[in-house]
Amino acid sequence: MRPSRSKNRASGVALVIVLWAVTLISAAMIGLAALLQRQLGQEVAALQNARALLVAESGVQMALNPSLFPSDMEAASRELSARLQKGWQGSRGNLEVRFEVKAREFQAEEGRLNLNTLLLGDRNEARRILTNLFSGWEVSATTSSAVIDALLDWVDADSLLTGNDESTENYSLLGRSGPRNGPFQKIEEVEQVKGWNQLAREASEGPQKVDWKRKLTVFGAGQVCLLSAEEDVIEAWLGLSPGSAANFVKFRSGPDQIPGTQDDQVNLSLLPAGPTLDMNRVTTGWGDLWRVTSTGYVGGVKRTIVALVSRNPPSVRSRWLSTEEDR
Fold it and tell me: What is the DSSP letter of 276?
């Protein structure tokens, strides 16, 4: 009887070990399957991201065509997207593939105010123009003055204080890095400047609902394109009172009254009498540097490319990915 009990006990222990081993192997297999599924999902997502970027690049390449004007972009992107969608069908099924370039997302870059050229030039002139611009945005005078001081301190090469707020030069007082003491490398850097976020909030929440990123740039020669600049930029640049360029902008669209078409024209006589217009500071043609924002869609993936393009000869000067979801 004793040997039989020992044998049964050994068999029971062996069974427990086998069951434990099977459980361990099953857990390992389930974990491996989950890992492979996750890796596969990541690879599929990376592939879709890459495809969406390639589709968005189609819009950038389309913008290089010198015969296309801003008003043409939406119709052209719809037509070319339809062809692209057709070419992607077949084994891929009904996967959505398209890119989108809106008219307001294709602009002559000189229609924006070059912040670097302005701030690194005559400081009094810079203060006058920015005061006019921020006033048109209905930003409070206190906020406007403080931000202009901070902008001047950010780009100048010295550590001398502009105004009487020491934190415009010593950002350690705010627990932040800055100033650069040099030109802005990209326009988004302005958000690091002391007081800018307050100014942007006042402008966006005010009656004008200002999107400041459409007004400013760090690219171009520092001239303002009168064919594409928005009303407040023109008034600030030329030292005009708010609303006085409305008639000029209204009739700038030409006979068809559609902005961004080939018949757009500059009629300087529609601008109110003011300081003598320095033609070296403005352009009356479209200029050669254009900004295009193209969004590519592949399935549920969306990617946006912003590019600066020259159309004579056609070339892409610079491109970057947009991180903004809502534009």
Answer: P
pLDDT in tens, 10-67: 566 666 666 666 676 766 677 666 665 666 555 556 778 888 999 999 999 999 999 8
153 in Cβ contact with 179 (< 8 Å):
yes
Residues of the chain with CATH 1.10.40: 115-213
Reported as a single tens digit per residue, the pLDDT across 69-111 is 999 999 999 999 888 888 777 555 677 889 999 988 899 999 9
pLDDT at 327: 41
Q: Which parts of the chain fold into alpha helices (H)?
A: 2-63, 73-87, 115-119, 123-136, 141-155, 196-205, 231-238, 246-251
Tell me yes or no: is domain 115-213 CATH 3.40.50.
no
Cα Rg of the chain, angstroms: 30
Q: What is the reported pTM? A: 0.80
- CA 88/CA 146 separation, integer angstroms: 54
Give 298: exposed, middle or buried? Use CB within 10 Å, 0-12, 13-18, 19+.
Answer: buried
Q: Any idea how long the chain is?
A: 327
Are the C-beta atoms of 202 and 138 separated by less than 8 Å? yes
Provide the b/e sequence for 210-222 (b: ≥16 CB within 10 Å). bebeebbbbbbeb
